[in-house]
Specification:
The protein is built from 1 helix and 7 strands, in the order E-H-E-E-E-E-E-E. It has a 5-stranded antiparallel sheet with strand order 6-5-4-3-7, with no helix packed on it. Strands 1-2 form a two-stranded antiparallel ribbon. The two termini are 18 Å apart.
């Protein structure tokens, strides 16, 4: 399945939509205050799934020595699993070096906390 990921560009986000909780975003549904021009496409590509309900997410528990402490069993970061091939998991991650990028990890990488799907 080909998916696209869009991210709010803070320079064009006059209503600070990026900082609203989900409940407050509902007021923008169908409202002209939420303009599509504030979004940038940051990824478009194939993921190994048939429907959006099958998109797997990967959760990381970073080993943050010095900044926020060692691994603590709590998810620090999330990505989308693009595919798994030959023992390597390929991910699409936002906020990866201040950008959206494709990364790869061995399936048993120690900072992978687990996998899941979103309950739509």
């Amino acid at each position: 399945m080909n998916i696209a990921i869009y991210q709010i560009n803070p320079d064009r986000d006059e209503n600070n939509v990026a900082f609203l909780c989900y409940e407050n975003l509902e007021r923008f549904q169908g409202n002209t205050e939420l303009r599509s021009e504030i979004y940038d496409k940051v990824f478009e590509g194939e993921v190994d799934c048939g429907t959006l309900e099958e998109v797997y997410h990967i959760f990381f528990d970073w080993d943050n020595k010095g900044s926020s402490g060692p691994q603590d069993g709590q998810a620090d970061h999330v990505g989308i699993v693009q595919k798994v091939e030959n023992g390597i998991v390929y991910t699409v991650e936002g906020n990866s070096g201040d950008s959206c990028r494709v990364n790869q990890y061995p399936v048993g990488y120690y900072e992978i906390l687990g996998y899941g799907v979103v309950a739509y």
